[in-house]
Structures are given as structure tokens and as C-alpha cells.
Amino acid sequence: MLKRFKFIVLTILSVAHFSVSYGQSKPNIVIIYTDDLGVGDISANGAKKVKTPNIDRIASQGLRFTNAYATAATCTPSRFSLLTGKYAWRKAGTNIAPGDAALIIPTNEETMPGMLQKAGYQTAVVGKWHLGLGPEGGPDWNSEIKPGPLEIGFNYSFIMPATGDRVPCVYMENYRIVDLDPADPIRVSYKEKIGNEPTGKENPELLKLNYSHGHDATIINGVSRIGWMTGGKKARWIDEDMADVFTNRAVNFIEKNSKNPFFLYFATHDIHVPRVPHSRFVGKSGMGARGDAILQLDWTVGEVLKTLDRLKIADNTLLIFTSDNGAVVDDGYEDKAVELLNGHTPSGILRGGKYSAFEGGTKIPMLVRWPAKIKAGTVSNALFSQVDFYASLAALTGRKISSQDSYNSLSTLLGGKTNREFVIQQAVNSTLGIIQGDWKYISPGPGPAINQQVNIELGNNMKPQLYNLKNDSAEKNNLADQNPGILKKLMARLEEVKKD
Ligand code: NG6
Ligand code: CA
């Protein structure tokens, strides 16, 4: 009898002990994944023309990376890699997804949010999705839309299906479009015009923001988009309110889960096009809509920081702030971003930008704060790739995973030395580059040298390119001919990684 009693007491004690240490040791995790923000776009990285005090606060209270990379120079493949720990170029169909694409993340393989769920986290995605939705053939917008975020490991989802410049321009909460009137069903096409709503091409006089290239289809809220849609009038978003809507959902999720470990993947629309910020930011940067969108993004970050402070969970929250790809100025709308740049350098000294195989494509701003573990005001020049978030967060939360591409770089993420011998970069046309040691190699291939519309050098070249990033971080001198040995080594390494 006594023995049995002892056993019960011990069991209760050990369960109690387990749950206490469980709650305390697992930090909350917040990833603020911004869109198209360049290394030069935040004052923490030296920007002078625009001030980002809230973003800078993450750096001053935590860690600022100077050598961190997204896996790709566009959104869909970068996000695919972030959430799966796998290079997107291993899987067909992972380039910039049309707004009616089927879900591109397999539901039968473990993902980062799924792994964190198993580790006891409540998980949420708020903001831009752009990873496809629904079964093969794409989603039926008027019924339950699945598979989607909930099938790959999120407990809660509040998203825009694709991008701000792609139809359908509606929010989706879990399986449903928000405020959809069944009497006004949504139809979407990326092939041809459907319905009879005005388009940017046919009715430019109706636009409040003109397009500069592309973006000439259905007009929603005075802005023409990529793709055509009809119906869903009540459900359509107002671009000016988008940052408020997403921030509100993100804050609500944090509040609801402040007493248990949570993972929030907060993917902002800012500073992607169309840049139509709320009136409280319009004209405030003096740099046009792009600068104003940076101020709006900074406000968003401030709201997240304030919420963590108010709930007294900032100390035990690992907060990561970064971007999906490098900067672009004119990405298809006449929003005065070019004319009003005023000497601001979104990509810093880097060559290229969004879409590019040059550094401006994938080198991104990255700040990490975890007051319980990271010394305030640290700067790290350690090489880091976003493909490692998956394995690093698995290590943090005690989950065993198997991944060929994602390495456990937790110590790097918290301010230690690099754990990576190399970083792989993917440009818009899937050209690959590899950085190893001081050197960077870009594989040869066809394609225009410059995307004239966005005025960005893409890095395409029929000859192999080799740059010494240590002496030449702006990639001015192709040293391939002078260094055949190094060239051969990097080429071979890239081939090895591709084979893996
Ligand atoms: C391009 C769009 C660009 C942007 C990009 C995706 C045109 C001419 N350009 O095709 O505006 O939407 O796709 O950006 O349509 S990303 O950040 O989501 O990858
Ligand atoms: Ca992007």
C-alpha cells in the first residue's frame, strides 16, 4: 500500500516537474518575415534617409547579422525552403507561384511548423502565404480550401493567398475566405479575362496607382493586379488597412498564447508592391510609397515588440526579423519609389537586387533577439542561410529531424561562429550560386544580363563567374580566369550539393 502511494506521489511530482520545466525552457518563437526588404533599408544597417527605430531595437537588444542569406532571390522558393528546410530547386514548380496554384509543400513530409507542433507549440501563420493552396488544379475559393497551412503544421492561419499584387485580393482564415457572401462567389483566372470588371489595361482612368509593367488585369481598390477575378466584392481587402489587419491578428495570437509556447510566422505584405500604406504613413518618409511602406513595417514591428513587453514574455521569446529576398525599387507600379529615392541605397553596396544571382538577390537583413540567451548589441559576420532555421529550431526544441539541406546552426543563430562551410543561392531563373570561404561562384547560363523593367542586373552570363567577396563584396571583378583551381573546387562542390 505504502509502496503504491509512494509510486503515485513520485509520478505526480515528476509530471509536475516535467510540465514546469517544459513551459519555462521552451522559448516562444516569432519569425517576422518581411517582403523585398534590402540590407540597406533599415537604419540598424546604416540607412540614413529612412529611420526604423523599432526594427533597430531588435538589433540593439539582440544580434545583427551581416552575412545572412535567404535561399532564393524571390518569394515562393525562399518561403518553401524556410518552412521545409529543403532547397526549393530540388522540387519542380516552386518558382514564383500564380495566385491560383495548388499547395506546393507536400503534406506527407515534416515541416518546420509541424515539427514545432510536435514539440508542444501552438503554431500560426499570419500574412503573406504565396505557397499555393488546395489540391492539384488549385483551390475552389467558394468552399473549404484545403490542403493549406493547416495541413502542413499550423494550428491557426490568417493569410492573403498569394501576394498583394495577385488576385484573389481577399483574406483567408483557416479554411475559408473571410466575409465571403455565398451569393457573390469568387472566380479567378490567370489565363484570360473572366467577368466584366474593369482592368488596368482597358480602363487606366479608373486607377489610383498606375502600373509600370505587368499588373494590368482586374482593378481592385483602384489598383490593377496580376490575374483576373470576379465576385467576392464584400470580401475584398483595402490595401491601406492591410498592415493593421495583419498586425492585429498577430497580436491577438500572441495574447491568446502567452501562457504556452507558441510559434508565430508573421509574413508581412510590406514592403512588396503595391505599396499603398495607411494614410498615417503617407508622405512621412519623404521617399514616396516605398519609404512610407518601410515606416509602416517599422510600426508593425513596434506593435509586436510592445505586445511581448506588455505580456512580459519578451525575455523568453526568440524573435527573428528578416526578409525573403533582396530589394527592388520599381517592381511594377508608378509609385514614385525611383524618383524619390533621394540617395537611399536599398541594397547597400551590393550588386543586383531581387531576382538576381548577385548578392543583392539573396543577402538580406537579419536580426535576432532572445534576451535570455543573446547578449544585447552583438554583431555577427557569421555565414548563415535561412534553410537552417528548420534544423536549428528543432535542436532548440529537442526534436530529432532528418534533413539533407538544413543544418543545425542554433549556435550561429544565437551569436556563435558559423556552422556552414557554404551557402547556396538561387536566382529567379533558377541559376545557382555558391559561397564558400572568401569566394563566390555563379554557374553559367543563358538569360538577359539586366531585367530592364526593374532595372536590376540578374547575374546571367554564359561564362562562369567567380568573385572574391572578401575583397570585392560588390562583385565587380570576375576572377574565374585567374583562379581556375578555386573555380573548379566551387563548381565541384555545387555539383555535389545538387546530387545529394
Ligand atoms: C513578378 C511581378 C512582381 C512581383 C514578383 C513576385 C510582374 C511584371 N512582376 O512576376 O511584381 O509580384 O513577381 O514577387 O508581374 S515575390 O516577392 O512574391 O517573389
Ligand atoms: Ca519577396
Automatic annotation (TrEMBL):
| Alphabetized PROSITE patterns for the sequence | SULFATASE_1 (PS00523), SULFATASE_2 (PS00149)
Please, which domain of life does this record's source organism belong to?
Answer: Bacteria
Give UniProt keywords alphabetically.
Hydrolase
MF terms from GO for this chain are: hydrolase activity
Name all Sulfatase N-terminal domain ranges.
Answer: 27-398
Per the record, the similarity remark reads: Belongs to the sulfatase family.
Output the PANTHER family linked to this UniProt entry: N-ACETYLGALACTOSAMINE-6-O-SULFATASE (PTHR43751:SF6), SULFATASE (PTHR43751)
Protein name stated in the entry: Arylsulfatase A
Origin species, per record, is Daejeonella rubra
Q: Lineage, please?
A: Bacteria, Pseudomonadati, Bacteroidota, Sphingobacteriia, Sphingobacteriales
